[in-house]
Each structure stands twice: as C-alpha cells, then as structure tokens.
C-alpha cells in the first residue's frame, strides 16, 4: 500500500467514526471499564456496557459493534459473551476479542478457545504472550502483561508477522499484536506501527482502551477491518506520544499521563494523525 | 416561587448537606461507580456501595438515602435493589431511581416497572428517552443516551412538563428529566433549569453522578425533595459550566473535563450557585 | 530502632520493590479497583485482578502477593478469597486483608472472621473502627469510614497500640490502623506515623490503594513484613502531603487531588521519603 493511499484511507476512516458515532457494546472487565467508556467517547464512539445473559444479545442488537474482553472473567458472563457474540455475527457487526491474560489461567485459556469456537471475530487484539497462547493452544503468560522473553523486536519481527498471519488465516480475524512494535495482519498483508510510548505500560487499561477504539473504528468502517484496526492502533500510539510530551512539560506522573492520553484522543484529528503516524505496510 | 425565595432555599439546602454529611447507599453500575463515589464526597455526602442481597437492606439501614441505578443491571442485584428500597421506604429515607437505558432492553424496562411496583421512589432521574419509556410503558431508547428525536426544546417544553407532571402524580416521585434543558416537577409545580454544558455528554457518568448528588441533597433535606433535587441539578449544571471554562483555559480534553467537573463540585459554595444558577419556576 | 536504621531499611525496601516489580493478585471491590491497579503500578508493582473461583487460586500461584479487600463483598467472591488465600499461604506469599466496612453489616463482620479462621494474614489494614470490630468480635462501624468517636489521638494512642498489639499476637498478622495518626504493630514493636493529609479522606479509595501498596512492599520484602508495611504507610502519607501542596498551588479540587496522589507515588524515591517521613518506633 502506497503512503498516500494510507493517508487518504486513514482520513476516510476517521471521518466515518466522527459521522457515525458507532455504538459499541462492551462485555468487559470491571478494572478498566470506566477508562474504556471514556476512551470510546473520546474517539467518537459511544459505549454501552451490559453483561447479563438476559439482555446481552438484545443490547448487541441495538449497537454497531461488540467488544469481548476477558479481563475479569467470571462464569456468569461467559455465556453472555457468547450470546452477544452470536448475535453480532448474525447481524454482521464487527466483533473484537481482547484475550486479557490468556495463558495465565486455565479458565482464561479455555474460555478463549470456547469463544473462538462459537463466535467469529473480526479482530483479536492482545500482547504477544496472549496471541502466542492462542497460536500455540497453550501458554505461559505472566499475569496480564507480556512476558519479556516474548517481546517483538526488529530481529524477530518477520517471525512474529509470520505466526500472526497464520493465526489470522486460521481464525479469519485480523490479528493485532501490541507492544513496542505493533503488528496488524489480515492473513496476507501486514502493517507495522511504531507509534506509542513506554509510559503506556505504567497505567492500567491501555490495551483495553485500544480494543474499544478498534471496535469503534471497525464498526464505522465494516468494509475495511484491517485498515480500520491499523488506524486505531496508530491513533492510540500517537496519543501515547502526545500524552508523554504533555506529562513531561507539566512534571506530572502516571495518573496525569492517563488523563492526557484520553484528552489526546478526544482532540485528535486526521491532520495530526497524518503528521504523527509511524506506519509501514508490508 | 419568587427569586429571593429560591435563593434562600438553595442556601439552606446546601448548608444542610454540608452539616449532615448524608450517607448514601448506592446499588449502582460498575462503569461509573468510582465517579459516583467521588462526586458524592465532593458534594458533601459520603458513599457506601453494597449490592449483595445478604447486606443490602442492612446497609440501607445505617444510611440516610438510597440510590438505585440499573446501569449494569444483573439478575443478582435486582433483588438487592428491591430489598434495599423496601427498607429505605420503611425508614422514610429518600430513594432515587436512575433508570439507565430503560427502553433499550426488555430486562431494563421490565425491571424498572418491577421496581416501581415494589418501591416508592422520592425522585426518578433520567434522560427524556428513559422517562418517556416509563411514562408510556415501553420505549425505544438508543442505548444509554437520549434519542435525538426526543430532545426537550423550547417548543416542546410545555408538553414535556405536562407528561412529567402526569408521571409524577402517577408514581408519587419528583421527576427529573435532564438534557440541554432540565425539568424538575412534583406533580403540580415545575422548575426549568438551563445550567450545564454539551461537553457533559462527552464523558461517561454525568447522569449517574447527578443522581448521586440528588440523593445526597434530598437525604439532607427530606422535607424539601422537589427543591433539593432542583438545587442538585442546578449545582451539577453549573459545575459543568465551570469545568468547561477551565478546560478551555488549559486546552485539555474530555478526561481533564471529567476531573474539573468533580473539582468544581468539591469547591462549590452557595454564593457561586446563587450567581450562576439559571432556574425558573413555573 | 534507631533513626539511621529506619532510613537504611526504607531504602532497601523501596529498592526491592523497584527491582522485583512484585505481581499482586487482588480480589477487591469494584468501586476503587482501577485506582488500586494504577496505584500498584505507580509504586513499582504490577496488578492482577481475578475473582472467579475457578481461577482465583491459580492466579495467586503466578503472583508474589495477595490482597483480599471486602469493599463490595458478595457471596460469589467469598469462596474465591478463601481459595486464593489458602494458596498464598501454601506458597508463603504475603497476604493483606482490607476489612472494608467490617462492623457495618453482619455479612462483612462474619466474613472477616471466616477469613481469619481459614487464611493466615501477613497484614491487616483498616481504620480504627474496622480494627476495633475485629478486636472485639463485633462493632458499630459507620459505613466504610471510621466512627469519629473512635479516632486515634495523642491521648488514647497508648491504648490503641496496646489493643493493636494484642490483636497482632492473636492473629499473627501485622496490624495497620490508619487515620490522622497511623499505627503499625507486630505484637511487640510499634511504629507511629504522622504523615498524610485530611484531604485523603475526601476521595474514595485511599485506604484500598494503601492496602495495595502494602502488599507490593511486603511481597518484595517478605522477610520484613512489619517494616515494609510501615514504609508503605509512610510513602502513601507523604504522597498525600505532596498531592496537597500541588492541589493548593493549582487551585484544584478533590479529583485533581486524586490524580496528584497517584502521580506522587509514581515519582517517589528513597531520598524524598527519607526527607519527608514522620515516623517513630516505640
């Protein structure tokens, strides 16, 4: 994909989000749920959280996209996730999976495979350890953070792209691996993104928030899932950089950083994204 | 009600909140619960969150007021809401209902009617779509936000006041409809408030937070529910304006706005409210 | 303990936290969980929240310490707390109990005693009303805040230290009572800390956040539980003071204060703690 094509495409994607205000149903964890809701609003979407089995599918029905995030998985909500996922599939709505901590417990790993069995995902976004767990069918995720030995580097990037593409073909989902280097693949084509800042890992929920933004971007651009996911990753990473500049100026700490991150998303426009994006297609 | 009467009354209401530090039991959603707790503290109240059936009524018993918010309704907590509501009724404590998303799912709509059957509410606060759903017995709420076609305008204001008063008579509750124009009615008398700022809808939880503030104001002023609810709506709207000024000065985004909103409530005094209020009684 | 010994010890404790990045499993309430996660990251730890019975013990197994916080206790999570607690005990990991609202309801009081029966705690941290409830076997906690009649003052300090030490001997846990004056006892020895600021009680979650920090400090210093707990209390109190200075300069309110509190923790170093600590050993 040529650079001017990416530029034009990103502009279209952002305009669609602004114009459509996609409604995103989130069945998500209670740790970062407020940040996800505020980030969704900041990026131009609108959040609905509902996880009871008796309304999950119905709520999906009035929305434009669905997030399934297993961050504080419990037996009560697994069925709700599946019920909402099936409805979204039936309606042709984008569904994004955030397999938080897959590999860290049997419950999480097995639930991810059950979800993959019963729901067709448009996008799966995780850190490298979580995605490797799904790829291999087992894993050794260190809690909810990526294992350091797993980090994507310039050296192992081709290998990471290869297995991500394989997983993409197997699941039919766009695979998004986030870290210092982000990879977004659709089975044959790949974006590599180097936006972002290490301080993003010093607050909880940047992954969950990004998953929400991806869902909003995809819901407003259902014909361009791979491109919309990449645009969301770029936008989030750039906001991480803008927030770092700001926290540096003001001498704030991690909580200020969290605020500046959401602030940046609420003020981001296509021109800033065009200037700030560090994306390459392969 | 004459202007100087409103002024004097608002001052009394705020003083009572400050002096009594009303303890508010909230059975509420997990999306905005932290903001509700911090807003309750900011306005001079004190929050307790407890939603297990085995302690709900007991916790209500040590408090001065109760909030029932169906934002992330689940089957486990509906009974807790009713149990807490009945106890609050028995004790004569103000009970405020926030019917988040009523009309958006059968579960929410039917639960609201079950709650109205079993609990006597002092105040019901929602957006126009939610309140219309309760008024009509069915609805088409677009998620948790008001349907645009439902917005209260100068033109349909008399009609909105009419149906709100009818609902107030039917339920015995003060009805609060919030939006660009806010309406607070008690069945015969109405306040119309034009404080607030559109940016309030760019963060999650302003409705939930307001419901908490209404509960604190009513719990400290149980003999003046209609007036206390109006004072809370005015206070919240004014804080929304103050926060907007602040965010404009600092160049912040929506997350800064959220912070400034709670900040403003924590610093609000009767003099500022007197100068800033945009209220009319009809 | 001599002053230079405390100084050296605190430095070692903080260095251990920074070097080990202790992973803390939290079975905690949904009101303050996001603040707890961000405060844990700010202090140099890493949070995992997981409360389903089918993964609670397993998650404990990959962590270095455990927090059990009964803030929004429900029947579903009590068994998870016990399961996680037993696993942590078997592994020799520090376990910290935050008995939020013990004494305010039968459910909370009885659950605390059940937890004490089945799990061995390294530290119990609460306000004076909660700790008194545990000491006496019953109580009259006013919601989740300490009863004013219970406050630790210069006058009743020796009496408070006495009963805390008795409770420490009975439970085998370091007892931390926080308030205007903080007490940390291990059955025979006591620290008294006067860091902190009244504004800490104007936001929700300072107690929960401190409990998280204590767990991180203890998990990184399992041979020095009493000292690590004291160091965490000092650090948190000092951050409360730094945040107050900051909010005073900027003219912010309580939500700014919350942000500055976490900011301060994310920037705290051993030198600042050495200069700012107000600790005495007895």
Brief synopsis:
Chain A is an alpha/beta fold and 282 residues long. Chain A has eleven helices and nine strands. Chain A binds chain B through residues 23, 30, 33-34, 37-38, 41-42, 46-55, 58-59, 62-63, 76, 258-267, and chain B through 29-32, 34-35, 71-76, 101, 104-108, 142-145, 202-205, 252-256, 258-259.
Q: What keywords describe this structure?
A:
alpha/beta, globular, 282 residues, homotrimer, UDP-N-acetylmuramoyl-L-alanine:D-glutamate ligase, 9 strands, nine-stranded mixed beta sheet
- Percent range for β-strand residues of chain A: 5-15%
- Number of helical runs of chain A? 11
The domain tally of chain A reads: 1
Which stretches of chain A of 5+ consecutive residues score pLDDT under 50?
Answer: none
What CATH first level of chain A would be assigned?
Alpha Beta
Distance between the termini of chain A: 8 Å
Order of helices and strands of chain A: HEHEHEHEHEHHEEEHHHHE
Give the assembly state of these chains. Answer: homotrimer
Topology record:
3 copies of one chain form a homotrimer.
Chain A: H1 3-20, E1 23-27, H2 33-42, E2 46-49, H3 56-62, E3 65-69, H4 75-91, E4 95-98, H5 106-118, E5 123-127, H6 128-136, H7 157-171, E6 174-178, E7 182-185, E8 190-193, H8 206-219, H9 225-250, H10 254-267, H11 270-276, E9 279-281
Parallel strand pairs in A: 1-2, 1-3, 3-4, 4-5, 5-6
Antiparallel strand pairs in A: 6-7, 7-8, 8-9
Helix pairs in contact in A: 1-11, 2-8, 2-10, 3-4, 6-7, 8-9, 9-10
